[in-house]
Specification:
Structural class: alpha/beta
CATH class: Alpha Beta
Strand order of the largest sheet: 6-5-8-7-9-10-11-12-15-13-14
CATH topology: Rossmann fold
Order of helices and strands: HEEEEHHEEHEHEHHEHEEEHEHEE
Distance between the termini: 46 Å
CATH superfamily: Alpha/Beta hydrolase fold, catalytic domain
Mean pLDDT: 90
Low-confidence stretches: 1-19
CATH architecture: 3-Layer(aba) Sandwich
Radius of gyration: 19 Å
Largest sheet: 11 strands, mixed
């Protein structure tokens, strides 16, 4: 409620200012940075927040515009769309509160038909009989105005948390049954969801969470957003966040350039392909590092290994890890 009130006050103050006045002069890093959209196109984006950005963000109403697409083993390819408050639709769906529930979040200028969902949905369903909910927040993510999309990431996360609270209240499921995985902007959104849900989400994964607009952003993914939080960095310092954010942070191949890739887009996406393979076959054993800089150079000599990804949260595990992958599937070297 406090965060919502602050947002309302900020928007009210912004409305009284000239359209081009800056609200926040920097969100971290250079003002103009390249960011990859979900459709694969690189855009030079303005990360400084302006009144016009807030006005654009104010038009997004996630409680009514977000759509939650349910997939189960009974409907693995055709979703059952659910909206918050639609108890009749929920009751006639295949949602089973006795199962674990996986939520998947796409990134900027993407939607529920994008690669992150089409890759991860079948992988989760193969691994276990679960409820998979792909969150379509494209009404907030599809704006070419990147600064507005960053603001929308926060409001969408708060709305998704309200959806989870309603779902749990309606069905008897609990936050301990939830596993949330988000890519790019969705990576940060997974943490925002975790800190706004009534209870502790069992597992939160940020898949190469976005860098532009997040370095000094207080809403970025945090280690204490869930019972277990894991970050997979595959384009660190470019499109993806560079430093460690979770209980555990994995830097495959140093976290920047992935074998078999020849573009930042490919690097940025490799994280969810690695997660999908880990759900099916395991593998991806990381070696512990003292710092993220050590992980990025492969200079890791600490005692202890940990598996990256997988279906089960590794609650209680902490640390920074380095591993190497193959250039093509199977990516895991064991």
């Amino acid at each position: 409620m406090l965060a919502l009130t602050a947002s309302v006050l900020l928007l009210a103050a912004a409305a009284a200012l000239p359209t081009n006045d800056l609200v926040i002069s920097k969100l971290g890093g250079d003002r103009y940075q390249y960011m990859r959209a979900g459709n694969g196109v690189l855009h030079l984006v303005d990360t400084w927040l302006k009144v016009s950005d807030l006005n654009a963000a104010a038009r997004y109403a996630p409680d009514t515009q977000n759509v939650y697409h349910l997939f189960t083993r009974a409907n693995p390819t055709v979703s059952q769309p659910i909206l918050i408050g639609a108890n009749g639709v929920l009751g006639s769906s295949n949602f089973n509160p006795s199962r674990r529930t996986i939520m998947i979040l796409h990134g900027w200028i993407d939607n529920v038909l994008g690669d992150v969902t089409t890759v991860l949905i079948p992988a989760f369903l193969e691994a276990e009989d679960v409820n998979v909910i792909a969150v379509d927040w494209s009404a907030g993510a599809s704006t070419i105005n990147y600064a507005a999309a960053v603001v929308n990431t926060v409001t969408s996360g708060e709305a998704v948390a309200r959806f989870i609270n309603w779902l749990n209240q309606s069905t008897g499921s609990t936050p301990a049954q939830f596993h949330i995985a988000g890519h790019s902007l969705g990576g940060h959104q997974s943490g925002i969801i975790g800190r706004n849900v009534n209870g502790n989400i069992a597992c939160l994964r940020a898949l190469d969470p976005a860098l532009p607009g997040w370095i000094t952003n207080d809403n970025k993914f945090r280690a204490n957003d869930g019972a277990y939080t894991e970050v997979i960095h595959t384009n660190a310092g470019l499109l993806g966040y560079i430093t460690n954010l979770g209980h555990t942070d994995f830097y495959p191949n140093g976290g920047i350039n992935m074998p078999g890739c020849n573009s930042q887009q490919c690097d940025h996406d490799r994280c969810f392909y690695y997660l999908a393979e880990s759900l099916r076959t395991g593998g991806f054993t990381g070696t512990r590092c003292a710092t993220y800089a050590g992980a990025m150079t492969g200079n890791c000599v600490l005692w202890g290994n940990l598996q990256m990804g997988g279906l089960r949260p590794k609650t209680g595990s902490t640390g920074i890890y380095y591993l190497q992958t193959n250039a093509a599937p199977p990516f895991s070297r064991g």
